[in-house]
Specification:
This protein is about 20% helix and about 30% strand. It has six helices and 18 strands. The chain is globular and about 70 Å long.
Length: about 325
């Protein structure tokens, strides 16, 4: 699937070849950029941007790192896929324009499936087993904007949980939380596949709105450098990690639209909110004399994410808020 030799010392760049038969090219392949930087023995980091194609901070951040890091600086190996879901990246879409597949809902994949599931299978069976640590960089895409944050899984035992927490603390996002994996993809995400295989994985949300946040881009680069430093792959790569704020996020910490309409937010990212506070209004352009629906917080917390398009459909997530926890 690639001409790169992951066991070879030095800095290599090339492509994964995702073969796909289509009307305009029956025997061609989709080239997915991959960079391998190796120097002797040591741990391996797998760094991924573009799991969703319109989340740009990780894509640009990992391209920057791939250009900056030279093999002689490394002790071990770094494998970088800055635009993993390459067709979606080039189309500016969350999911693949080829088969409609959402890559981060396709793990562990299927070698006999469509292009998206084949790609997930390669990551699951070839790349993740090579890794000692995985970083998967996301943002809110077209639908949401996030305070830059990091999330890790619960871990299968206390030792694993503590190691995952350290990973988030090294990354140094303003906000960190533990994902229980009950929603948002559950067991079908890349991080869930890493947990099944016992490989520590950090996921980050770095902005949103299908734009490129400068703060999120800086965190993508510096946070990954801090992880590479702490695990011994890229010594002295970064300064001390900023302190992260641990919060609790659950399905009860979301506000959804119960009807279609125009959403008028009454909160800002990062705002502290209290139970009963107005989160926003839904206006009904088909019934202009109808009173807008009020949406209120059921508990106190801190606004983590907010819906971007004003036009919303029934069931859309409009806001996520989180609660402080003590570690």
């Amino acid at each position: 699937m690639t001409s790169l030799d992951y066991d070879k010392d030095g800095k290599q760049h090339g492509f994964l070849r995702l073969y796909h038969s289509q009307e305009t090219n029956g025997y061609g392949y989709i080239p997915i950029p991959v960079i391998s930087i190796k120097n002797g023995r040591g741990p391996t980091a797998l760094l991924i941007g573009g799991n969703h194609g319109n989340e740009y901070e990780g894509i640009v951040g990992m391209m920057n790192l791939a250009r900056e890091i030279e093999a002689e600086q490394v002790s071990g190996r770094i494998i970088i896929l800055p635009a993993l879901n390459f067709p979606a990246v080039m189309a500016g879409t969350r999911s693949s324009p080829i088969d409609g597949g959402n890559l981060n809902r396709s793990f562990p994949g299927d070698a006999l499936g469509g292009p998206t599931r084949i790609l997930a299978h390669y990551v699951s069976t070839v790349l993740i087993p090579l890794a000692d640590v995985v970083v998967d960089l996301h943002a809110g895409g077209r639908s949401a904007d996030f305070i830059p944050c990091a999330l890790v899984k619960e871990g299968r035992n206390p030792r694993e949980a503590e190691g995952l927490a350290r990973l988030a603390e090294w990354f140094g996002a303003p906000i960190s939380f533990v994902s229980k994996g009950k929603s948002g993809g559950g067991g079908l995400t890349l991080s869930a596949e890493c947990m099944r295989r016992g490989i520590p994985c950090l996921t980050a949300e770095l902005g949103g709105g299908a734009t490129l946040s400068r703060q999120g881009l800086e965190l993508a680069v510096e946070g990954v450098r801090r992880i590479l430093d702490r695990v011994g792959i890229l010594p002295a790569a970064a300064q001390t990690s900023p302190e992260t704020r641990w919060v609790r996020k659950s399905a009860d910490n979301r506000i959804h639209a119960h009807e279609a309409g125009i959403f008028e937010p009454r909160i800002e990212l990062g705002e502290s909110v209290s139970a009963g506070q107005l989160a926003g209004l839904i206006h009904f352009p088909d019934f202009p004399m109808r009173k807008p629906e009020e949406l209120r917080f059921e508990a106190s917390g801190y606004v983590l994410s907010r819906h971007i398009p004003a036009l919303v459909s029934r069931g859309d997530e409009l806001c996520t808020f989180v609660e402080d926890v003590v570690r």
